[in-house]
Specification:
The complex is a heterotrimer. Chain A is an alpha/beta fold. Helix content of chain A is about 40%, strand content about 20%. Chain B contains eleven helices and no strands. In chain B, α4 packs parallel to α7, α4 runs parallel beside α11 and α7 packs antiparallel against α9. The chains are: A alpha/beta, B mainly alpha, C alpha/beta. Chain B: It is a multi-pass membrane protein.
Amino acid sequence: MTATDQSHAPEERAAVPMLDVRDLRVNYRGGGRTVPAVRGVSFTLDRGQTLGVAGESGSGKSTMALSLLRLLPSSAQVTGQVLFEGEDLLTAKWARLRAVRWSAASVVFQGAMSALNPVRTIGEQICEPILLHDKVGQKTARARAAELLDSVGLPSRRLGSYPHEFSGGQRQRIMIAMALACRPDLIIADEPTTALDVMVQAQVLNLLGELVRESGIGVIMISHDLSVLSHMCERLAVMYAGQVAEIGPSKQLITEPRHPYTRALGRAFPTIGDPASRLAPAGLPGDPPTPSELAKLNESRGCAFEPRCPEATDACRTETVELWPSGPGREAACLRVLEGSGA
Amino acid sequence: MSALDTPAGLDVPRHHAFSRFCRAFAKRPAGLAGLGLLVAFGVLALAAPLFIGDDQLNVIKVDGPQLSPPVDGYPLGTDQAGRSVLLLVIWGARESLSIGLIATALTVVLGSTVGLLAGHYQGWIGKILMHVTDWFIALPSLPLAISLSAVLGQGAASITIAIAVTSWTATARLVRAQTLSVEARPFIERAKVLGAGNTQIMIRHVLPNVMPLILVSSTLTVASAILSEATLTFLGLGDPTSVTWGSMLQAAFLGGAVTAGAWWYLMPPGIAILIVVLGFTLVGRAVEHVLNPRMVGR
Amino acid sequence: MKPVLEVRDLMVTYPARRGAAPARAVDGVNLQVGQGEIVALVGESGCGKSTLARALVGLVKPTGGQVLSDGVPLGYSAAALKAYRRHTQLVLQDPGGALNPRQNVFDAVAEGPRLHGLTDRLGERVHTALAKAGLRPPEQFAGRFPHEMSGGQQQRVVIAGALALEPSVIVADEPVASLDASVRGEILKLILELRDSLGLSALVVSHDLGLAWNIADRVAVMYLGRIVETGTVEEVLLRPKHPYTRALLSVLPDSGEPPVLLTGEPPDPTSVPGGCRFHPRCPLRAAEQDSRCDGQDLPVLTGDPSASSLAACHLVQ
């Protein structure tokens, strides 16, 4: 999938990328101290491209995604640049940001039940952004809502139903319909299938994949499941301790990871039929850094992954690690990458 | 799961829970003010016998001017028998506070037991207990208290019991609701599989998790118990010989302080009640904020 | 091999709620777990797998059939259940919720031994259990409270609490579903190690077929209260017979096959379809149009562990 997708991109490359994130940092202040959640993340995304962000809890992946549209609580300090169509969203006025949130970029949250208002019909909820933003009549909005529901595989006669009348997978599809309501250019999907069964998850992912292919929407999808992401997205960013550990084309990251953490994550979910993983679950000793450890990391040198790394050397404790090119279109934050290219 | 909630997960060891509680409490000026008021009243009440003797309280032995406004030596004036109102208010704190505290203790014990049992045994035991509770809620509290003291006789004991009998239902309801929510958590299931019986589940797992709530509600119960004490004594159900804030108000009312315009006699016990109730309420609110993690930061 | 834990024709029916029929959560299940064997019970949410796990540890009383421990039917008096619980222990999905926030690690692990009067050299017992669960050195963890530990460590405490009673079987309900990807493998490794070092048997309930591939000897696939396919992991996962198992495997990202997406209403235990209970969603039946599918009930699978694979389907027998 990756190889072909890369080839059709060049004609859009000339212009500014749709989304250009530069040195994004998020700190939470609370209880008299500052806890870093995102520690310098940069990437770009174009129309029709899909980027998967993988990581464990505390890796900062959700914080990073939500900070793009300034959806974080006020205790979060966001610095850096989020250039959307060349405009910095972090410094944009609230009115402008609201307009972007309505029409240009939308979010699919993980908890579909809590994100839907239980006392209003889903028709009303899908129509709301259309009415507010597109300034069309009730009838047009209604027709568009019916169309949207149809496109996510639900009968349009159910516009008058309430959220509790749908199953979990159906509600997640309604969330996607709502995200599509104003024909956005970018969708941020935060763990869109985490609470769903495998069968329903497959349905929702299939749907998202089709919509992206048909409409050329840019998608940032966040998940802890590397295998799901690698099949949904062209490019993959693996986050650890608030930084990108490795970024590049999905297939390559899965088949030949350059960062030991990517390798460990890839092995965590086995491929059925792979004799190497039969009766041999693969894990990684230790735990992701706690908030206070993250605060210390920010001040010290060395690789954040070093304490858990099976291949760590003395240099990993003292050298500053940053993303280095590790192949065409990919980068990894590991000293081994430098060794590999040097030797 | 996301990094969003990590800042709240501060890793402070639990064995410092008490000192952490104190530090958090110290950051709440209103709670500290309330605590200061309560400590002042408590110290005065405890120390009262050191500087107040029988000759200042006994109507026969006192020699002050009768129903006099504040003058030298009597900063809050005197009552119709010539006793210092200031000393009466301080002496009255002893019984008012002790009735309030004992009634609260009874309320908390009775209410928590009923609430815990009703929440744990959701079958017929729980149903019966809740019906009894509902029945007590439906009883009008004042007539019940009056008839109780008629049966038990006048005095502090009957007032304490009357207050406890009429106020335990609120605690019971609260504890039952909290018990239900604790019982639904997975660690109860784990305890059952480890072999815990009903008693062990209630005492080792539910009670410690309900305790903070009981603590908060009891500070508020003390306030209402002191008010009830004043009400019941004012209505003449207390011991006529003892001095409490309620009995002072009653004496002032019966002695014609209102028609005489003797504000110095009526106001001090009223203000004392107000201050103590305010103190308990402020402390209760502060404790609630400190103990309830959902209110942290508000 | 004599099973250490067995269920025969187990039924668990929850009484009807207003307006709805009774829910047949577990509707006739035969299953055996042998000495030192790890069996994975796989299915989607609502298939009855969690209810079955709770029936196995005596938390839910079956409305029909039996739970047998070492061949002896389980009694439901308080004393019989308590005695049974030294033998079979449960590990829950959410370790954060499964630990009392006001108990430290020592008390959480010592709880079982204390309840069973095993207070002789309690400290040693607790430390041994902690060490077995991979919390080494145990002294360093004993005084901690749940909120001071990571999810993986919490799950190890829950497992240590079960091990402190020296059980012969552990029933684990989604033991790694709420854990991080890198920690998942560590906990699964621990379950395998415990089997090897202590001869522990385990029934692991999960929605994740990869977990079965990682640690189980045998696997049972459950759909709507029944086991629809069971056998050795290799046989069931590599050569699935039942169309439901095939569909489940096909939607995995790495399956390499076109995904078979099941349509139709999600399964509802209050209205179990007649005939084969999978027939309204079955892709095979849609293709073959066999009258037995919606007309003829299927027998309950025997759960015979010596058969390499059994499937409850009219069309693949």
